[in-house]
Automatic annotation (TrEMBL):
Domain Mitochondrial outer membrane transport complex Sam37/metaxin N-terminal: 2-93
One BP annotation, GO: protein transport
Domain of life: Eukaryota
UniProt xrefs under InterPro entries: Mito_Protein_Transport_Metaxin, Sam37/metaxin_N
Pfam family, one: Tom37
Location(s) in or outside the cell: Mitochondrion outer membrane
Chief place where the protein resides: mitochondrion
Protein name per UniProt: Mitochondrial outer membrane transport complex Sam37/metaxin N-terminal domain-containing protein
GO CC annotation, single: SAM complex
Keywords, comma-separated and alphabetical: Membrane, Mitochondrion, Mitochondrion outer membrane, Protein transport, Transport
Length: 130
């Protein structure tokens, strides 16, 4: 349905990271299987840190920053996605990631890139990693 990442199984297509991980765990494909309780907790804490701090910065770099999106992200996805999806799927993903970033940051960011950079003292990504 135009959502990435996606895992095509024999029965269905699973498209959310949490659902993909749950599907793999049910079938005993789990990299954390042999970890102790402490190691499992550390892994969960690290994954949460990445999702909370790094993910918004990556979304911004790939999908919001207009220079990166136009010169890198859109062409990259356009080449990887088969015709005719390569004409509209990158734009759909762009819109979804903009919405996701607004939800993650509670709408507390500026759509105007120059003003956003000025607010962050020239380091736009710094405000995502607070």
């Amino acid at each position: 349905a135009g959502v990435l990442p996606a895992l095509k199984t024999e029965e269905d297509v699973v498209s959310q990271p949490v659902q993909i991980l749950a599907y793999l765990r049910k079938r005993k494909y789990n990299a954390d299987y042999g970890l102790s309780a402490t190691q499992g907790a550390d892994t969960l804490a690290f994954a949460s840190l990445i999702e909370e701090k790094l993910l918004p910065a990556l979304i911004y770099m790939f999908w919001v920053d207009s220079k990166n999106y136009v010169s890198f992200t859109r062409p990259w996805y356009g080449e990887a996605i088969p015709f005719p999806l390569n004409f509209f799927l990158p734009n759909r993903m762009h819109t979804r990631f903009l919405e996701r970033l607004r939800l993650i940051r509670g709408g507390q960011w500026n759509d105007n890139e120059e003003e956003a950079e000025n607010e962050a003292g020239g380091m736009t990504l710094a405000r995502f990693c607070r």
